[in-house]
Amino acid sequence: MGIGRKLVRKATPRPIRHAMHPVRTVKNKATPRPIRQVSRGIYTVTNPLGAAESAVIFGSGHRRRKKPTKSRQASRSVNTGGLGVRVAEAHSVHDDLSKQLAVQRERFTPVQKPIVPPPPPPLDPEALIDQEWSKRKGEVPFWKPSEKKRLKAEISTQARAQAAAESARAHAAHSRRQAEANAWWSALNQGDPEVIRSALKAAFADNPAPAFVVQVEGAVAVLCLVLPWPDLLPAKRAHVTPTGRISSKAWTKTEFNEVYAALVGGHLLATFREAWATAPSLSEIRIFGVRKRSHQPTEVLFDVEASRADSDWDDDTKGTAILAHSDGLKRKGQAREVQAWAREAVRNDLAGLLEQL
User: Fold this and answer.
1) Are 230 and 256 in contact (CB under 8 A)?
2) In Å, what is the CA distance from 301 to each residue of 43, 174, 266, 338, 342?
3) Distance between CA atoms of residues 340 and 346, nearest Å
4) Taken in order 5, 7, 12, 13, is the CA torsion positive or negative?
5) pTM (whole model) above 0.90
6) Confidence band, pLDDT 50/70/90 cuts, at residue 329
7) Hey, which of 36, 123, 263, 349 would disulfide with 163, CB 3.0 to 4.6 Å?
8) 97-107 burial by CB neighbour count: b if 16+ within 10 A, else e?
């Protein structure tokens, strides 16, 4: 009997202890690793039904958790307020970072030929006649029917003439505006520098990282992208503790620099995408990225060029890939800190432009 028990015990498979529930949310591959890790932790903690499902499907393991003693329960109740503050802070910094890094996922609808709305329907002459008659019918005494008939005919003639004139003016204005829109559309597609400059200026007006048109010549444009400084990022990052709780902690230098580089790449990619969508005649764009503080020299972070013919503009890592080239970001040390270019490394044609910023 003892041997039989041992055989049965050996033949029984052990429960899977370390199996994990499959990830339920689609994560963007362009999101830096620290943000992805925290996102998964926040999902687990803020969605208890998902965590409970995991326990049901895969089991909770052999070990039973000991019930907390009274002293532990008391300490937990004392620390609840501090824990709540840390959780709120973690959610705040996580949401802040996610919002900032969302720029690399922006898409822009290509500009379309403008169609001027049609003119309003013509005025109803009968309505004008009734309106005018109600105002002027007192001009003729009721015992003079011939005068009344003459006045009605006069009002009818004037009302019909007014309706026709208003309709003609509306159609003429519509034709004029549509002709202007057609001329603008033609100039935009033919590469008129002033039209492209104006269109890009309007498109970039609401960007979180300001972009300016430096030059437009033929199918090539030169843009200046003013980038945020690293202190735009929160001082701490969200963190999931080994026990599965959400908290916050200070960045490591490497994590901080990776997230900042991803933010710079996101703004670069969004600027390229918006420029392609706004100016269909452009085939090459050069963008140099700068940082500027009051009363300090302008810093150059990159000076890159790209072609519309590239096939991977839908890839959200495109900006980071462009900045990995020789004219992209300069990274220094083990922590990969983003460094400004040395002044002698800046191309000669940028010298004058930097003085104007």
Assistant:
1) yes
2) 35, 48, 14, 8, 10
3) 10
4) positive
5) no
6) very high
7) 123
8) beebbebbeee
